[in-house]
Amino acid sequence: MRTYVFKLYNSKRNKHLNKAINLAGSIYNHLIALHHRYYRMFGKMIPIFRIQLHITKLKKTKRYSFWNHLGSQAIQDIAQRIDRAYKLFFNNLKRGVPTSPPGFKKVRKYRSFTLKQAGYKLSDKNEIVIMGRKYKFFKSREIEGRIKILTVKRDALGDFWLYFVTDEEVQPIEARSGGSVGLDFGLKTFLTTSDKEKIESPLFLRRASNKLKKLSRKLSRKKRGSNNRNKARLDLARMHRKIANQRRDFHYKLALEIVRRYASIFVENLNIKAMQRLWGRKISDLGHAQFLNILDWQMYKNGCQGTKINRFYPSSKTCSECFYLLPELALSVRAWTCPKCGTEHDRDINAALNIQRVGTSTLKGEDVRPASVGCL
Questions:
Q1: Using 50, 70 and 90 to split pLDDT, how confident is the model at 7?
Q2: For residue 308, which of 348, 255, 349, 271 has the smallest C-alpha distance?
Q3: What is the pLDDT of residues 17-75, one digit of tens each?
Q4: How would you list the strands of the sheet with 120-122, edge to edge?
Q5: Model-level pTM?
Q6: How far is CA 263 from the centre of its chain?
Q7: Where are the chain's structural domains?
Q8: What is the per-residue burial (b if ≥16 Cβ within 10 Å, else e) of 14-36?
Q9: Partner of 143 at 20 to 30 A CA spacing, among 77, 267, 270, 275?
Q10: How far apart are CA 7 and CA 245, in angstroms?
Q11: In this structure, what are the phi and psi dihedrals at residue 80, rounded to the nearest 5 degrees?
């Protein structure tokens, strides 16, 4: 499977897509209300087939006949989204993970609808027919394979994007031979390699914080519902999109540089959600989760191999020379000396070396366990 993303031309006819997404948002809220009512009455979620039958009956009534303007497949997909969200919610409850059930959304903040087998037709040019209306998009490259799913998304600026999911099989390059590297992610540095190289993060959100404050202050001073307030909102959204694009560009270039230098890459299996609860905006600004997804894709395309190390492996507290394990190591301590062999360690470089060692041993099939706390 492969996904292609294209942007629609800005046109007056895009208002029809805007209405369709707003309609999808109102249907979403209607189905959420049904789920809440059913749960209060019976203490469980509605089976998906019952929701689908109920939708079919509603569309035949005069009151809800306007639902037919969206298309049956798009409405069924909304029901499936909610069903997946509720299943995830109940699974998290069983595992004791703190979470909240799917809730209502503001219609103007609802973002997309999905068409799977019907409702759209793609021409040879940069034109597509969606629910009977023709739209043009920026066709930057040819679409390979058969289109399986089309998703129309609206961003905060009001621009529309087409996401084509095709059945194209991306053939990976055969694994190549070469050097290996361990990557340790941090807060002060974006990542540290086992070659003792530290890569700083540009922290685009922090660098643009003053501009964001000014734009936010400008937005808060505008009268609600006015055109000036809408212009200020678009300026703020445009700045956030620029920051996200800068961060994504940095991640792609860094990932491509790493996969070209090394054939085997090893990283930690990070608990991003827990890190966000502890350090909040800083983790979001670093974007470790996005970088790992991009790195996985680049490794797949360039014939690299690697693995993720168990997040509970004490990579920072284990001496990379004699494998002595410190009983405690505070996060504020950035350098320490091994009491057994006397080696001086930089915390991040030592962790990267241990990640490389454990990752290499894992690929070879060896069983590497953390050393027990040693004695002098």
A1: very high
A2: 271
A3: 999 999 999 999 999 999 999 988 888 888 899 999 999 999 999 999 999 999 889 99
A4: 120-122, 127-130, 133-136
A5: 0.81
A6: 25
A7: 2-166
A8: beebeebbebbbebbbebbebbe
A9: 77
A10: 15
A11: -70, -35
